[in-house]
Amino acid sequence: MIAKIRNKFGQWSSSRYWADNINDNFYKDVSRFFQGSKPEIFYVGANVGQALRPMKRYMPGASIKCFEPFPANVTRLHRRAKGKNGVEVYPMGVSDRPGELFIVPHDNPTMVRLVGEDSGGLEKTDVTTIDQFCAEHTIDRINILKIDVEGLEMNVLHGAQGMLSRVDCIYLECGINPDNEWHTSLRAVSDLLEPLGFRIARFYEQVPEWPTRQPHLRRADVAFLSPEIYAKH
User: How far apart (Å, rounded) are the C-alpha atoms in residues 152 and 115?
Assistant: First the structure.
């Protein structure tokens, strides 16, 4: 009995278990919309490529464009992308205007973020916008736009004003608690997307307010679907 419990706990605590059973539910859910096709995925704030495995598992023919500005993350991202067909890595940031921004490092590589001014010795990175990138690469539709840029999600969306009507699914990290100043407010995102016809499909990876231990949500990953998707299904 003890051996069985240890074995089960080992499965639950493994990164592969969480990738298979928790973190990839969104990709499993939306893959049905793109069966028989090769979806175009923009992975903005790709970090070290944690989502590449579920993306390719459920949508093996997908074209995935990974945007990540932090050099240490880019190195690991290249290793994870190696051998995966259709995956391209772009070592740059994405915002509301092209140019340059500064990288604020963090001990946790998932919490690296970009700022507009150098507070002292910060490294620069090139920045593009969704609209500019699509124009330069002749991309007329994005099937899945995944954004996780530590509070700058609205900047990315504002830089995609021309493309938003040609995006099927938007999957991004949002702050649920209005007192949470680190993450982009769900209300702000909804106010931008709902007039365009986008509707919330589901919440994923709901995280409680752990810093204060208060009994409400701090953040969640939120999936928005375009009218073109939900009207057909």
Answer: 9
Terminal Cα-to-Cα distance of the chain (whole angstroms): 46
The kind and range of the H/E element at 63 are strand 63-67
Q: In the numeric block, which tokens belong to residue 4?
A: 């069985």
pLDDT tens-digit map of 34-72: 998 999 999 999 999 999 999 999 999 999 999 999 888
Distance CA 17, CA 28 (A): 15
Query: E-assigned strands of 116-198?
Result: 123-128, 142-147, 167-175
| pLDDT tens profile 166-218 | 999 999 999 887 776 778 899 999 999 999 999 999 999 888 777 777 777 87
pTM, full prediction: 0.84
In the sheet where 40-44 sits, what is the strand order?
Answer: 87-90, 63-67, 40-44, 142-147, 167-175, 214-225, 199-209
Answer for the pair 131, 122: CB distance below 8 angstroms, yes or no.
no
Percentage helix, strand, coil for the chain under 3-state DSSP, each rounded to 5 = 35, 30, 35
Q: Please name which of 19, 17, 77 lies closest in space to residue 45, comparing C-alpha atoms.
A: 77
Question: What are the CA-CA distances from residue 23 to residues 63, 123, 128, 205 (Å)?
Answer: 20, 31, 28, 7
Q: Which of 55, 115, 112, 110 is nearest to 88 (CA)?
A: 55
Length of the chain: 233
Contact 189, 172 (CB under 8 A): yes
